[in-house]
Design a protein that fits this description.
By secondary structure, this protein is α/β, with parallel strands linked by helices. It contains two helices and seven strands, in the order E-H-E-E-E-E-H-E-E. Helix 1 links the parallel strand 1 and strand 2. The radius of gyration is 13 Å and the shape is globular. The relative contact order is 0.20.
């Protein structure tokens, strides 16, 4: 990951919850949970995104972090990039800096990393 200081690992609902907290603990960092809409208490911000079979929404608590904090987003799979893009959009609304997005598996034929624009992306395994 970047040479920049990382403040938080953000795990995406739900399988990103398997990797995000463990990575955060190993690195001695805080962990944020970005959930499907309607699951978090308190004031939240949300973003919708397209799925192959419809649309979905993600949310994060409005006070989850301070402006300028640096975050790495973690999920199990990058397919079309919709979920990861929505997470980056939410973090941007909270004025966080997304340093990188990371997934265990990437389905390269779906070109999801292109949806992330200039945000660096890393995957451990790539499949067509």
């Amino acid at each position: 990951m970047h040479g920049s200081r990382i403040d938080y690992i953000a795990g995406l609902d739900s399988r990103g919850f398997l990797f995000g907290p463990s990575l955060a603990q190993e690195l001695g960092l805080g962990c944020l949970l970005i959930r499907k809409r309607g699951k978090l208490p308190g004031p939240t911000v949300w973003a919708s995104y397209a799925l192959e079979y419809g649309k979905a929404e993600l949310e994060i608590q409005r006070d989850a972090l301070e402006p300028g904090q640096k975050v790495v987003v973690v999920d199990d799979l990058l397919a079309t990039g919709g979920t990861m893009h929505a997470a980056c959009e939410l973090l941007g609304r909270l004025q966080a800096e997304v340093l990188e997005c990371v997934s265990l598996v990437e389905l390269t034929s779906l070109q999801g990393r292109e949806k992330l624009g200039s945000v660096p992306f890393f995957s451990l395994l790539q499949y067509d």
